[in-house]
Structures are given as structure tokens and as C-alpha cells.
Design a protein that fits this description.
Largest sheet: 6 strands, antiparallel
Number of domains: 4
Helix content: 25-40%
Radius of gyration: 26 Å
CATH class of the largest domain: Alpha Beta
Shape: globular
CATH topology of the largest domain: 2-enoyl-CoA Hydratase, Chain A, domain 1
Number of strands: 19
Distance between the termini: 79 Å
Structural class: alpha+beta
Length: 498
Amino acid sequence: MGNLNRKNIFIVLLVFLLIVAGTNLATFYLVGGAGSAEPVEEVPATVIRYEPQHNNGSVQENNYDTRLIKDAIESIQENYFYPVEFGDLIEGAVRGLVDSIGDPHVQYLDPEELDEFLTDTRGSYAGIGVRIIEVDGDIVVFETFSGTPADRSGLEPGDRLLEADGQELSGQGINLAVEMLRGPSDTTVEVLIKRPGSDEPLKKTVGRAEIQVETVFSEMLDDGLGYIKVSSFDGNTGAEFARQFETIEQEGLSTGLILDLRNNPGGLVQQAVEVGQKIIPEGEIVSLVGRDDEVINTYFSSAVERPYPIVVLINEESASASELLAGAVQDRGVGVLVGKTTYGKASVQQLEYIDGNSAILMTVAKYFTPAGYDIDKHGVEPDFEVDMPEILRYYRYFHPGSLSEGDYGDDVETLQLMLEQLGLRVEVTGYFDRQTALALRSFQDRAGLELTGEFDDKTWVELRRAIEVAARENDEQLNYAKELINKPGLLNVIGGID
């Protein structure tokens, strides 16, 4: 029992440290900025308010909770038929504490999960430069990033990765594939791939390098009309936005700017603020408010007012930090919003480290727009509501594997919607009938593919390319924004005169 007693002491200390970490440490990072992590916003969810504990009865309650956990672990270790690792019980207890809060934003991250989380928010990683998905147990290249080792080595969307350095990947899950493809810069990995339309597998040796995740894309649409899309806010977004914004200004940005925040799930608050500091004139961008309704921090801009109108594109998948930015544009009268009401998530998460190598992603604040608007559960409403066909919003996530006559379900329905969007005659039923096969053959004929009437990897690659073009040409929200900017007097509308 001596060993168990030492474990009991560890459990008591662990629970106490968890209580302290959850109630006190979070504010320090936000106010003092001394923490190693910035406020992070992730998947939209419900906000939970954390009420302060009072002295009356709190010690007894905490002692009771501690004893409850200690007794439960001791009972399992002494009486459960199968042996259970003590560390697994402790981790399970911590996850249970976190889950009991009921806020999907609040997460316990073990060392492996924490490392992955930090990689995702840092905006760069060491790897080959591909985005992969799992289809029917196979690992499929979804896209390659321009200028990366994967791009230079000739990897293509649709390639199925069978092996990496001799390790079989099929049926092993996507996490193993990620682990095998990532690694130190200036190293290589040998991959065995099955290319659509090729009978024999191909071997390629692909280098690894520091891959910069691209979250900002910009171009000039017309003379004087600029377009910038921000897909998320990671550790490099602010600097990359500043660089590309300066570039299009030098190219003659004068008619107007379209800022596309559609399908942007959020990210780092500081990065959204840095983008705001480029386009929002001198004044407030956002305020962070703590659990006792105290203002933790207010972020400001010192930029000069731009001499051209700004239109921001938003939709139902614009969330968190992207809503923060859209709300600031609207409240400050900087521009107008076009699209659909945003998701409605206004909580801010902060990493709180426990036990050295683990952390809790904790909700520590909410944000309010410059006009004091709380968008949580409400979202930011557009000034001009414009619909967008759903298939043009979600086509990039479609990769069902093989489909043929007789199949049915959501994947078939999505395929039919894509074919319909391309002007092919098909009835959207969710059942792969003869008419669907004929429509698919017509598309394959257009794309120069073998006329099989079946959906395979090669057809997926060409269909995605065709929908990419259609999505841009038939982008009703983007086209409406362009029309707005080209109408005389939009600056008066933005300024509240009209």
C-alpha cells in the first residue's frame, strides 16, 4: 500500500493544481502577455461562464471532490479484474474533469495532441508539402502546395500513398501517414504511390523542408480592384496579409478591396487584429472581456483611412476571429458585408500548461465588437444578404472513392449536384442510375478521360478542377461585391450617408 499512498498524494496534488490552473493562470497570459501561447480560437462552440469561487464551503467541497477521485482510482486498481495503468487512470480523470465543463472548446491535450496543436497554429511545419485525406482506408493526396518538395517531385492530387519508407500506409489510419511524411528538414522519404490510370505503382523520393502554410491569397481582379482571401488566422497570417496587401496597393489598388472571409473558422486573435490594423482606420478593433465582465484588453488600430471602398465576404462558416474582423469593419463603418450571417462564436481560448508536457485549452474570455455587440450565438449579419449554392461551398471536401451504377447515398447526391452545376442533365436523387452514368460519361468526354460512366480518382481530379472554375465564374457573392464596388456612391453608403 506504500506505493498506493504515494499515488494518493499525487492525485490530491494533481486535482489541486488543475483547480488552480483553471481559475487563476489564464488571465495572466492575456493581460501580461508573458505566456508562451497566444489566445486561440478554434471550432465554434458554446461559451461557458466561469463563476469565481467563494470561501464559504469551498475547501470542504474541494476536499470532497479530491477524495472522490482518489477513492475511485484506488478502487479500480485494487478490485478491477484486468490490470490498468495508473497513468491511464490519471489521464482519464483529467479528461473527465475537462469534459464535465460541457464546453466543447475546452480540451485536454496530451503531449502528442499538444504538439500537433502547436504545429497547426504556428503556421509552418517540416514535411513534404501535401494535404492528405483518408478514402476507403487509403491515404490520398488531396492537394500539393506550390513550390514544396512534393510539388517539385511530381506528386499529384489523386495519388494514393501505399507506403512511406517501406511502412505500409493503407488501412493504418491518417495519423501514421502524417507521422511518416513529416520529419526534419533536409531529410527525405521514399513513397510508393498508385497513380490514377496507371497500372504499376511508382516510387518517388521526396525531400522534406519547412513548409509555410498559406492562409492568404491575393490578386487583382480588374484595374484597381483587389481581392484578398484569408482562409484562417495562424501564426503567419498577419505578416503575410501585410506583405500581400502592400503588393496589391503597389499594383494600383484604387477602385476597391474585396476581403474574403468565407469558410474561415478563426484562429489566433492577435493575427486577426494585425489584419485589422491594416484596413481599419485609427480606433478600436475589438475588446476582450473576462468572466467578471471586466475588460481584459482592447485592441486598436492606428492606420489611415483607405480612399477606396472595402467589401467583406462572409458566410455561415465564418467563425471566431473572422467574425471579430468582420464585426470591426461593420461597426467602424469601414466597409460593407456581403453574404450570409456568420456562425456566431465569440469565446477566446488560452493554452494552460499542466504537468510540463500537457495542457488544457481553456475558455478565458469573450470578445465584443467596437459597438459593444456580443455576436455569440447570433453571428454578424451582412449588410447585403446573398445566397451561394451549397455545392460551390463544399465541393473541395468531396472525395468518396469509387462510385458506380447501383450506389446510393449522400456521396451520390453530391456527385449529381456537381454534375448539375456543370450543366449536365441529371436528376438529383441520391441514387446512381443510368442517367447519372450517362451524365458522368459526358463529363469524362469533355475532360478527355476514358468513358466508363464510373466515378474514380481520375474523374475526381478533373471534376474538382471543373468545379473550381465554375465556382469562380458562378460565385454570386463575389460577383455581387464587384457590382457594389463599381456602383457610384458606395463610399457614401459605407459612411452612413445613404
